[in-house]
Amino acid sequence: MASHIFASMTLLSMLDILTAFLPLVAEKHSVTPAAVGVLLAIRGCASVVSRLFIPKLSAHFERRQLLVTSLYVSGVSIALAPVFIDVLWASGLALLIGGFFLGLGQPMTMTMISTSVPPVDRGAALAVRLMGNRLGQVALPVISSTVAAGLGPAGAVWFCCALLCLSGAEKNLRH
Question: Which residues, at least 6 apart from 113, have a Cβ–Cβ distance to it below 8 Å?
């Protein structure tokens, strides 16, 4: 269950990190606030749309496999967005792909946590997941800010992307 909570925490925190730091990355490269708004909207829409595909994907792939893929693909593709911030279509494509896979991961962790415990403990397990998410929403931006102090605002995004990939690697090791 701790593995699922870590994945959930990193997936959710990525949203906050992008919202806080992508505008700073863009400003550094003279990208307009309107363009950043479009990029963040692309990520958000892709996350919503991806949830429509969960039933079909779950019928063809194992949940753990989908979650690990979600962690790796979102981590790698979102890491590319700051690199290509000057080329808006490339950054938009990276956020489209990353947003789609971020959107898959959150509901999958909730399902995996609730099915990993007996039915009487599901409420408590989901409460612990929520607590982990809130802890991540507080701690990871603080840690990311420290990373950004040394590497610039893109470093904060890359740090959280590394955590997504680390979570995927941890899940692979457990299997």
Answer: 1, 4, 5, 8, 125, 126, 129
Domain enclosing residue 62, as ranges? 2-174
Our count of domains for the chain comes to 1
Q: How many other CB atoms sit within 10 Å of the CB of residue 131?
A: 12
pLDDT in tens, 131-151: 888 888 888 888 888 888 888
**Two tokens, residue 53:** 């595909």
Structure tokens at 116: 């990993």
In this prediction the pTM is 0.90
Measure the CA–CA gap between 60 and 99, rounded to whole angstroms.
21
Q: Can you list the positions of beta strands (E) in the chain?
A: none
